[in-house]
Automatic annotation (TrEMBL), chains A, B:
PANTHER family: ALDEHYDE FERREDOXIN OXIDOREDUCTASE (PTHR30038), TUNGSTEN-CONTAINING ALDEHYDE FERREDOXIN OXIDOREDUCTASE (PTHR30038:SF0). Pfam families: AFOR_C (PF01314), AFOR_N (PF02730). Belongs to the AOR/FOR family. It comes from the Bacteria. Residues 1-206 form the Aldehyde ferredoxin oxidoreductase N-terminal domain. Its cofactor is [4Fe-4S] cluster; tungstopterin. Keywords: 4Fe-4S, Iron, Iron-sulfur, Metal-binding, Oxidoreductase. The keyword Metal-binding applies. SUPFAM superfamilies: Aldehyde ferredoxin oxidoreductase, C-terminal domains, Aldehyde ferredoxin oxidoreductase, N-terminal domain. InterPro entries: Ald_Fedxn_OxRdtase_dom2, Ald_Fedxn_OxRdtase_dom3, Ald_Fedxn_OxRdtase_N, Ald_Fedxn_OxRdtase_N_sf, OxRdtase_Ald_Fedxn_C, Tungsten_al_ferr_oxy-like_C, W-dependent_AOR. The lineage of its organism: Bacteria, Fusobacteriati, Fusobacteriota, Fusobacteriia, Fusobacteriales. One of its GO terms (molecular function) is metal ion binding. This is Aldehyde ferredoxin oxidoreductase. It comes from Propionigenium maris DSM 9537. The keyword Kinase does not apply.
Length: 574, 574
């Protein structure tokens, strides 16, 4: 394993051995560690002193099921905090097979430039990429596969990242070559854009396996773990059939589906945008409801969503996306929402941030609530870089300021996703306290609050929520370091045998002797590092709070977010 | 004296006696105290929980020379800090004569509304003002004087405040009825707009004097003080002749006139935009170079600047404005800059923020450096509320984010004004550490650094700068509480007899027994309150820093800003 350091000022590419204390790290654990070690927390996120670190997880590239997650770490231009954003797709496995522990991109060109990084078994080269100027991710992928081969993995920026808009994502191609998987949250695409990089093409050539200390032991643990994943009703049945959109009806029933910019917990047209409706629609149009975003994924929560003519429209069409453009904006047309998902993938912006932002443009009366054509047009403006497009592309907090409205659901300037923190209080604790800015994936308390996974904690009461969020945030920080998809958390939470099998896989690959306690310690250490970075960047507990309007009562349960600041402040104390 | 509390939700107007511990406060001292006492530091600046406090100074309305400053305090939507922004014009004297210690505006209408406050000897009423929708300050003034009488003082918002753009100012009419005096910095106009108030009309009727404990003693101290002001070369000669624009040539000579977005310390066309050129131009066109913004001002730094046809164009045309649209944007046409000053006054935005922001739009290549027509057009767009106008109207940091550029001269998101902190290091200390965000008036170290007033401290060396800024920040906080124009600081700094005369005036009016030590204590107490508010709002010492690019060397002296964070952190320790 090696670390590659790429300086975009002088265009140098150097290789380093992995430091001893980085050896046991991967994914988020490694990106957060390198950013903490090397980046001044007070630097401008788009300036010379920020860095962007790309790291596969500890198990990426192995036979472990659903182990294709890639971590990107940086100081976020959206939140100003440390950021780890991870994506599926085919990049992590390719990088791991090529022996990359991490790639560190630093400094930036003196003037605006467009380059691409070409990664092959021969090494890494930096090439001019002016011919990709202001092209969307779909076209970029087509051009680069034409140029570098059909099997090339492409990580790329759409127009948004090139313009350094703070909701810009980094797209990663899926198994079909579509740019549907994204490091979405926190504007990592803007940082890559500031470094003058439009795309990274990865061709592992004939290298198709990673090294194992004990291959047989790995196979044994991996098979046992895969069975647990497939035996769980959520990861084995719900996700493969309906994708994450299965949550639309569930959250609506729970009164936790934020509607009309968090004015209601239920959406009258939830059925029209539900996972069940999506499933029927996909089947009717000869799409595919059960699609893996990377080889070896056994949960296959992705899908191929075709348009009315049966032509491919989009994939990786998630619950949070459907919520953001749907219930949040009072839009009930699933095809329109699918078009918006595709536009976000193409332009390269986070769908959660974009959908919440469109709702804020409605709040500010720039377009009417529910105006699906207006919403689609606004997204197209982002791709054009018009002034209104630049407003929308900079996210919800920015758009709220542009239109002078204060009802903006953000924490640390990152949009609050698809679960109302008043009726799913555990997730509210996560939004407020994760070092990442509002992020459901950082500690997905929806499990015990709504899904009955990992026990059951009344989502409407404050009792137990802080502890629930704490435990999940710790476990997630560790899981985000393995390269395993977060959805393996479902079997882990319900099956005490699952987490030990992850330890067994790590031990079999790396000749280590870790167990569950070491995994927990790893999660805690990562969170401590991240909190320390944020503290030095100027964040205080006053930033670990939800917006004031969550003191308003939410129908149908008439609940407020009543967990106090003092209670929130204990969440990540350990 | 009384305090009036106006609730804009239920439209109540109530009067309160002045609390004992508010009696000795006025201006900034009182606004910062009330905001500290009554506003949650974590509230959204445009939400229901922010308040806006209007307070004349302790000496406003008296015979004291140049005592017409009005303070407006709030939590700033631009910086997120506590904010006091003060203006000249005729409002402070009228309010003081009507017996107002302060007016506190709280809560906000449920939906967007436009009202005006009518203040007369009979009391305060709230009236509908829909007929003023999206009108500029010049037209608003004309309409309201037509309606309420020619001598009415008008405080108003242009289009910017109505749209709650965060560089929005509150205009105050001068002695000609022109809206040339502004609470400019920090977006106080956006807060007033969020409260649903477009204008405040003040008619003191026949009340033309305030009460004095000892009128004769007041007259004596006041005359002595006035003589000191007139005897000082800056306040007695420089300002009345050339206005503050006298500084263009001085700062250019000192290598401290930031040019082309802080890339140079000298502007090749400085002479074209100098105070001397302005003076000649005004005289040639039968304007007036020596104009008082309020009755009783003896420094008369304002002017009437006519256009080429001899028609009134603008007034209150300041050095910082000329710098911002001039050297910073590489524009050398004084008439174009005067037009931009007028547009800012009319639309109701801070000229410093606006000029720096236009320069950032140039940095982001939205228009070309030096494009005066493009700059004028951008300001007009602010008045229209188009998307690009909303970007510009939200200031420099916002515009930098919109265009993905990190070279943005701001501290706490407020634009750095007209003195380069590398070659005038004392002012750099003030920018970094004042609780207000970058603000030259908060501790005007240019005095000893460049003007040789109050001693002389080498502006290129770090020695003595922290102490200089500290002393000036303390004195300024106190002066901002008196209602006296800040420019009385020139005689105060050079004449030990001046500050005692201010104490004598206060004592003669209020039957108190304060001296210079109490004035110093007052300044320190105000700064402590303000810092505490900011701390609770989430500010840390990491926010008391200049942008990274001030580590670049500045020509012609090839100096960097080399005062360390640790040194800066001692500035307001007392």
């Amino acid at each position: 394993m090696k670390i590659c350091r790429i300086n975009m000022r002088n265009k140098s590419v150097t290789f380093e051995d992995v430091k001893a204390d980085y050896l046991a790290l991967g994914g988020r654990g490694l990106t957060s560690r390198i950013i903490s070690d090397e980046v001044d927390p007070t630097c401008h996120p788009l300036g010379r002193n920020n860095k962007l670190v790309i790291a596969p997880g500890l198990l990426s590239g192995t036979m472990a099921p659903s182990s294709g997650r890639l971590s990107v770490g940086t100081k976020s231009p959206l939140t100003g905090t440390i950021k780890e954003s991870n994506a599926g797709g085919t990049a992590a496995q390719s990088l791991a097979k090529l022996g990359y522990k991490a790639i560190i991109i630093e400094d930036k060109p003196a003037e605006h430039e467009l380059n691409l990084l070409k990664i092959t078994p021969e090494g890494i080269t930096i090439e001019d990429a002016d011919y990709l100027t202001m092209k969307g991710n779909y076209e970029v992928g087509d051009i680069l596969r034409e140029k570098f081969g059909a099997k090339t993995t492409v990580m790329s920026l759409g127009q948004a990242g090139e313009m350094r808009l703070t909701s810009a994502s980094i797209a990663v191609t899926d198994t079909e070559g579509h740019p549907t998987r994204h490091c979405g949250r926190g504007g990592t695409g803007a940082v890559l854009g500031s470094k003058g990089i439009k795309a990274i093409v990865i061709d592992p050539g004939k290298i198709n396996e990673v090294n194992y200390h004990d291959r047989n032991a790995f196979i044994k643990a991996s098979r046992s773990f895969a069975k647990m994943v497939l035996d769980h009703p959520v990861s084995g049945q719900g996700l493969p059939t309906y994708g994450t959109a299965v949550l639309v009806n569930i959250l609506n029933e729970a009164g936790g589906l934020p509607t009309d910019n968090f004015r209601d917990g239920r959406f009258e047209f939830a059925e029209s945008i539900s996972g069940e409706t999506m499933y029927e629609t996909i089947n009717k149009r000869n799409g595919n409801p059960t699609h893996a975003c990377h080889p070896g994924c056994i949960m296959k929560c992705s899908q191929i969503y075709n348009d009315k003519n049966g032509e491919y429209l989009t994939g990786g069409f998630e619950y949070e996306t459907i919520w953001a453009f749907g219930a949040h904006c009072h839009i009930k047309d699933l095809d329109a929402i699918a078009m918006m998902d595709r536009l976000c993938d193409d332009i390269g912006i986070d769908t959660i941030e974009a959908g919440v932002t469109i709702g804020i443009a409605m709040e500010g009366k720039y377009i009417e609530l529910g105006d699906k054509d207006g919403a689609i047009q606004l997204l197209k403006e982002v791709g054009k870089g018009s002034p209104i497009g630049r407003i929308i592309g900079n996210g919800a907090a920015f758009t709220g300021q542009a239109f002078g409205t204060e009802r903006v659901p953000v924490v640390k300037k990152q949009a609050i996703p698809a679960y109302d923190p008043r009726s799913v209080k555990g997730i509210g604790v996560t939004y407020a306290t994760t070092p990442m800015g509002a992020d459901h994936t950082a500690g997905y308390s929806v499990t015990a609050n709504v899904l009955g996974v990992g026990g059951s904690i009344d989502p409407l009461k404050k009792e137990g929520q802080v502890e629930l969020s704490r435990n999940l945030q710790v476990a997630t920080a560790a899981l985000d370091s393995t390269g395993l998809c977060l959805f393996v958390a479902f079997p882990i939470l319900d099956n005490d045998g699952a987490l030990p099998e992850i330890a067994h896989m790590i031990n079999a690959k790396y000749n280590t002797e870790i167990g569950v306690p070491e995994i927990v310690s790893l999660g805690q250490e990562i969170l401590k590092l991240e909190k320390e970075f944020n503290k030095n960047a100027g964040f205080t507990k006053s930033h670990d709070r939800l917006p004031e309007f969550f003191k308003e009562k939410l129908a149908p349960h008439n609940v407020t977010f009543d967990i106090t600041g003092e209670e929130l402040d204990t969440t990540l104390e350990f």
